[in-house]
Amino acid sequence: MITQSKGKYLLLGLLLVASFRLSSLYGQISINSPYTRYGLGTLVENGNDPRITAMGGLYSGFRSPSVINTANPASYTAFDSVSFVFDAGVFGLMSNLQVTNQKNQGSYVSLSHLLFGFPVTRWWRTSFGVLPFSYVGYDIFNTEQQTGMPDIQYVYRGSGGLNQLYWGNGFKIGKKLSVGFNVKYLFGNITRSRGVTFPDSIEMKNTYIRSSMRPSDFYGEIGFQYREKLSKDLFMVIGGVFGPELEIGSSTSRLVTTYFGDITEAQLYYDTIDAVDNEKGSFTLPMRTGGGITLGKDGKWMAGADFTWQNWEKYRYNGNSDSLVNRWSVGVGGEYIPDSRNIGTYFQRVAYRIGFQYGRTPIYLKGKYIDEFGISFGMGLPIKKSKSTVNLAATIGKRGTIQNGLIQENFIKFTIAVNVFENWFFKSKYY
User: Fold this and answer.
1) Which of 81, 140, 185, 215 is buried most, with the most CB atoms less than 10 Å from its CB?
2) pTM of the predicted model as reported, rounded to 2 decimal places
3) Cβ distance 296 to 234 under 8 Å?
């Protein structure tokens, strides 16, 4: 039975979904990361759930009655048969960009996810919501000095990001095996521009190229999980996911102009060389796969490992390739709860989490693979007189290197989320 107070939760969630979608379409991301210039930007395909990220990214083999693990839709079958799960969070990033003798900083905060999950039948569970897919934000200036000629300044800028609406379903096959699928709708806007300017000359015409990509198409993945009870309390879960290679429909707008003036100030346009609006095209979303395993004791501890791989060498945008290689990552981590049933001592019921993740991003520049690693930690804080929790996670990491004139990003990511776990679907009894 859904009470009035529970209806407020649902209404609040739907309003947040709408506001998130509008902010994603029209908002701009204020991060400054040069590596978001390539491909579809920095990827966050599996969302930012603080419980999973705090454990190093245990996506494929993780399942819990209160966690909506969108990375593996087979995990939805862990939802309780009479419960409704709602999860919403805020994601933040602080980064420090470093080259050989210079440093720069950037940061941003945004809504990280809005997720709903609930049972349909005894063997079928469903989930829907909105997640980020990638973000783009960079502002690069490079000046080239010419002997006997005016200096040439190259400017590269980018902003925006992609998001995804999803609907997922998980199905129980017997007592141990679960399978599932997600259908996702990819949308958003990525704007990139580049220019060639002559800052020391008022007579030289500058060139400016601005383009935007707006995908609007469906894709998805399938997954499985096998849960084996090793003893009275000890369990093991083995899981895997697969997403096929697909062509994603997209529209492109492009404007090429010449102008006089500073690119950072008001410009006097001289001529329009090319202008295209809403030209139909596509990009290749590469095949992706992953697997993982978790071991644990119900209500006490859990540990596991996870591996993901994506074939980004096959990425093409309107038939053109980019400086991309295959992406992979490995994560290990776990959580520990001192005493989940201890009513008197609050911190005995807190879940403490830690993890480690190392991987290769899809970027290969100047003979170097751009790798990334991070150490994560977090807590799950139970809310008094309920099964709901507030979950916190932070990751301290590094991406790239200062070798070969490249850029190293030192970053701190954090996520704060509220998980509402309540009994909704039950029949009232009258005596």
Assistant:
1) 215
2) 0.87
3) yes
